[in-house]
Amino acid sequence: MHPKTLTLCFAALLASACLGQQGGQAGEPPAGAPVTATQQDSAPKLTPEQLAEIQKILEERALKQTEAIRRAELEGVQTRLGDIGRFRGARGNVLQGIGLIVGLNGTGDSKSTPWTSTLISNVLSRWGTAVDARQVQAKNIATVLVTAEMPAFVAPGTKIDVTVSSNGDAKSLEGGVLMPTVLTSMTDPDTVLATAYGSVSIGGFNASSGGSGVRKNHPNVGIVAAGATVERSVPTQILFQGGVMYFDLDTPDFSTAERATEALKSAYPELTVETVDGATIKLTLPQGKSPTEVAQRVELTQVFANTPASVVVNERTGTIVVGGNVRLGPAVIAHGSLEVRIATDYVVSQPAPFSNGETVVVAVPQVDAQESPAQTAVVAPTATLDDLAKILQTMRVTARDMIAILMALQKQGALKARIVVQ
Fold it and tell me: Residue 171, class by beta-carbon neighbours within 10 Å (0-12 exposed, 13-18 middle, 19+ buried)?
């Protein structure tokens, strides 16, 4: 193609003038937009041959995109092994503790939470001040559950985030400060693994007055960024007896496990690699080989991860996520909706002047039903994900209707995928 023609083609592509997507011909502005003389003079004038060349470029681009989608459905999506799995033993540990938040602006626990006064009394007695728990009435204190996740391999002195959650009747934790709190593991409550302290951030507010109020986010849960200091690390074992390491996939899949095994054998022939099951890959290290070096090389290995044929739906939010390997069998979809509206009008009957009658209010219900005509779509055999998207887009159904259609297709047997309802 001539350079000048190619320049005009790309200019037309950027302007979307020759695609017909905005209802006009080449060089025309969008519908309803004012056209100035400058725009008319600067609009590219394309010949039919140039338009045909642009259409050919677009068709080739769409064909390549379709081929890439089909190839990804068959071969999987290329990714790092470290992004879809982990080594056995390299896991985090959940820490927990009970703490006190002070400095609240009258939004703390009331007398209905008796353990708050008991805890603050115990804290004060530690410093030589004996206080009767029944006399504690301060509302600037709240009892919270403190939780955190300590990653694997962390060393003493490392800072981690903690989450504080009110377990009383506090109205808000805004502006509070978490007093020093010890954190232990779920299995050994006597061993202190971290200590937490710091200002609480709730990322919102809760204000009320005179029976009305406004709230942003959830004011009874907050975080203390880098608020916990690791005091003792948890021993982590990734190399087992016989110089064996196990790599576990987050989502078990035999195809992905076999592809990973073949990729590791090809990249690192000095390792003995075998697939144990759909989730575990066993690696036997030669004598003197560092497990951290092997772990680093394994995590960087590129592998084609299989995409499961599944549909995830959430009826509460109307969210639908369809996997790339979803296929449809022959089916006919007919969808219509019935809308019923029930309203009530009130008629007031006023008695004549100087009569002994009373004013009467009569409720008159009104019922209106409207049913839209059914929309019908035919699904061809082995229809793909993009075919399904085009069908549902053409039918112009809502998200909840789409969920109902997908469930009906699976029950009928035309949807060749698993539906996961959240």
Answer: buried
Structure tokens that stand for 215 in this block: 């709230």
Token pair belonging to 62: 């769409």
Residue 171 in 3-state DSSP? Answer: coil
From-to residues of CATH 3.90.76.10 in the chain? 80-89+237-304
Query: Does domain 80-89+237-304 match CATH 3.90.76.10?
Result: yes
Cα gap 362→364, rounded to integer Å: 6
β-sheet bridge partners, residue 143: 100
Helix (H, G, I), strand (E, B) or coil at 281: strand
HSE-up (13 A, CA, CB side) for residue 82: 9
Buried b (16+ CB within 10 A) or exposed e, 314-331: eeeeeebebbbbbbbeeb
Question: Which secondary structure element, helix H or strand E, spans residue 62, and what is its range?
Answer: helix 48-75
For the chain, list residues with pLDDT below 70.
1-44, 69-70, 72-73, 133, 135, 137, 204-217, 324, 335-348, 354-355, 357, 361-386
Q: What interhelical angle do 48-75 and 385-395 show, nearest 10?
A: 120
DSSP reduced 3-state for 54: helix
SS3 at position 65: helix
Distance CA 309, CA 325 (A): 5
At 340-398, the pLDDT tens digits run 555 556 666 777 776 676 777 666 666 565 556 666 666 666 666 667 777 777 777 77
